[in-house]
Amino acid sequence: MRDLPIRVRLTLWYFAMFASAATLLGLASQWMLERSLEKVEYHDLQERADDVREALSHQGQVQDTQKLHDVLAIIYEFKDGGKYLQVRDEHGNWIYRSRRMISQNPDLRTPDMLPKAGLIVDFRQGTHFVRTLEYPIAVEGTRYSVQTGIVLDRNLDLLNNFRFNLLLLTPLVILLATIGGHIMSRKALKPVAILAAESRRINDRNLDIRLPVSNANDEISDLSRTLNQMLKRIDSAFMSVRTFTGNASHELRTPISLLRAEIEVALFRHRDGQEYRAVLTRLHEETLRMTNLVENLLSLARADGGAETMTTAPICVDTLLPEIAQTWQRTINEALLDFQVDISEAGLFFMGDHRAIQRLLSTLLENASKFTPPGGSVKLCAATKGKSIVLSVRDTGVGITPEHKHRIFDRFYRVPTSGPVAPGSGLGLALAKWIAERHGSQLSVESTPGLGSVFSFSLERIDIPLQTLDASEASLHGHNRDSTFA
Ligand code: ADP
């Protein structure tokens, strides 16, 4: 059943429901008709017995059997000669027997043997089916048994007719209902078929197509809307992948062309060792930049594919920040900037991926050094805020105008500048943002154009007993937290 199409299943359900309902209804109406006929027949027979009592009661207290017979004979021979009637007194003497009763000769119980409501006795006479009621009556203190009967042929014909019609009509109704059900289910499922046909048209080149949404506020339009929302998400994911690939190719093409040009110029004529050395140094710098770009691209691709994993472990701020500061000290100093590390409190720990956090802070420090004019300052800070540790990089650089503030986290986005373009690819902050998010945090920026920027993110502080720290870490706790790397 599960393998069948919904349309067929619905039709089968319709069939099963209507078949059982129609059969039940037919059986119930037949039963009710039979009961009603039986009731009418019983009342008819009872009335006939009452008529006999009426006739006998007019005779007063007559004990003469013959006289009573004559009275009944006068009434019934003439009126009911062809009918079924026999009367017996309480001693078993026959008072009256119609010709049909005599020919059938059914026995009639004495009144004391009969229940108050009488007894139904059926028999066949020739082709007729006869229903009789043996009924006790009492007239002037004397009790009689009366047996009256009626031919049931007409009622039986009626019942048979009813059954025949029922047998003919029920399958017809079931058939009609099944056809109706089939048509209805086809109609109900037509929008689904349309949706399926439309969906089949959609492929990776026309993801902007949307499925039709009917005006009715029903389940199908709800489904169309949901599918359209899903298409929109897939479309924008595809778009961003395409843009990413396009941007990545573009970013790689520039340094490769540069390398080629450098090499071609160098090979154009013979040069001395000094010149070759200078060319090779430039090429080396360029390849370093390319390596950095490719690494960033790879990391983002892995992040998108869920392949970039994080290994979290307790990280001590007292160790992490000086470590990073040491790496960046020279670069920042070479950019003629003052560099400071400010840790507000000793013994701060958080859970994180050491390498990833290092990379995040390095990106922020690299940007700070790139976008801060000589003579400015860069500060790497750690402070507590409630149960969190806020890590930040502050600079007194060019700052970022509000319209670019949120876009700088987009891949390949770089704030347009009229001056010389700083090296970079616009991927650093996108990666930094992703790392912060993977640590359950948000990388945010506060900036005043011309005055500087603060990039920060917060991480949950964890408590680690001091004695569990190794000697090298413990030794850092005694140091001055504010060190200058200038
Ligand atoms: P990249 O540094 O390689 O250009 P990023 O994604 O790290 O790429 O940064 C994107 C852009 O954000 C930068 O090009 C720059 O315009 C802006 N930006 C980032 N950090 C700073 C900063 N500290 N001060 C001013 N502008 C910044």
The helix-strand sequence is: HHEEHEEEHHHEHEEHEEHHEEHE
Decide which structural class fits the backbone: alpha+beta
What is the class of the largest domain in the CATH system? Answer: Alpha Beta
Bound molecules: adenosine-5'-diphosphate
- Uncertain segments are 471-486
Number of helical regions = 11
Give a quick rundown of the structure:
This protein has 486 residues and is of the alpha+beta class. Helices cover 54% and strands 18% of the residues. The chain has helices spanning 6-57, 65-80, 99-104, 153-201, 219-268, 273-305, 317-334, 354-370, 402-405, 428-438, 471-476; strands at residues 84-89, 94-97, 119-125, 128-139, 142-151, 313-316, 338-343, 349-352, 377-385, 388-395, 444-448, 452-462, 482-484.
